[in-house]
Amino acid sequence: MLIIGIAGGTGSGKTTVVNKIIKSLPPGEVAVIPQDSYYKDSSHIPPEERSKINFDEPAAIEWSLLEQHIRLLKQGETIQMPTYSYLTCTRQEKTIEIKPCDVVIVEGILVLSMQSMRDVMDVKVFVDADPDDRLIRVISRDCVERGRTPMMVINRYQDVLKPMHQMYIEPAKRFADLIVPQGGNNTVAINILTDYIAGRIGNTNTATTK
Questions:
Q1: Axis-axis angle for helices 187-209, 14-24 (nearest 10)
Q2: pLDDT, tens only, 26-38
Q3: Which residues face 105 on adjacent strands?
Q4: The whole model's pTM is what?
Q5: The dihedral of CA 199, 201, 204, 209: what is its sign?
Q6: What gap in Å lies between CA 182 and CA 127, rounded to an integer?
């Protein structure tokens, strides 16, 4: 099993990179574990207070559960991955079954910021993008998917996203094995990554059948 960590700022193109990796490999060989699925439950907090939660700092994530799930997958066990609602800021009752497979991608803004997470990864990738491009993508995404207005997104970017990016996310770039500039538009970097993954899987399968 190959554990790949893919980090980068909000709106950097991480999801695009992940999708291109999945499309480059045979069906069923890749499982994706989004960091966002492991946000701590906020149902005990009044709804009007939930919008004030800082979701861009490590304390917002239940890392112990995420790390446990990765260890279980490496041991060949199936996990029940939690789901999270951005609209209500609460963990949902529904879970998603994830079975062990050749490649497990752990994706999220902070997955390279935690040493305990880096220690379980075989490949660490940082998806980089221009701050203006990231802001434009965040405005488009949050207005459509999370019910926010453009001004709400801009204010949150200035008050939370930008300082948290500089404090936690950008410094994690130095831990990356591969940096992908221009986000999901960098075809060359993505091809290098997918070729490496395919080679590792091929070598593993060959060794197993000998």
A1: 40
A2: 888 899 999 999 9
A3: 4, 32
A4: 0.86
A5: negative
A6: 8
